[in-house]
Write a structure and sequence with these properties.
Blueprint (H helix, E strand, L loop, with lengths): L1 E5 L6 H8 L5 E7 L1 E10 L2 E10 L6 E9 L1 H10 L4 E7 L5 E7 L1
Antiparallel strand pairs: 1-5, 2-5, 3-4, 6-7
Amino acid sequence: MEKLFSYGTLRSKEIQMRLFNKILTGTADQLLGYKLKSLKIEEEFGMADYVVAVASENPTDIIHGIVFNISHADFAKVDLFESNAYRRVQVTLQSGETAWVYIEN
C-alpha cells in the first residue's frame, strides 16, 4: 500500500466510486510550503475549473487534505485520471508521513 495526499477531486466519494469502485478511508493532514492555484482543464464538454498544488516561497503556506492508503493498482488508475497538467511527487506532510501528491507539472 502507498499513501496518497489528496486536496481536490479525489476526496469526492462519487469520484472514488467511479475510479476505484469503492470509497476510500483516510485521515486529515496538511502539506506545508505549498499553495493552491486555479487551473483550467479542457474536458469532453468544455473547460473545467480545478486547483493544483504549487510550491510556495512561504514555508508557512498550507494545503489541507486527506491521506489515503491505496494499492499500486489504484495508483495506476489515479495516474490515468489526473491530466498531464499534474505530476506525482513524494512529500513529507505535517504529520511526518511520507505520501505521494499531484502537483503542477
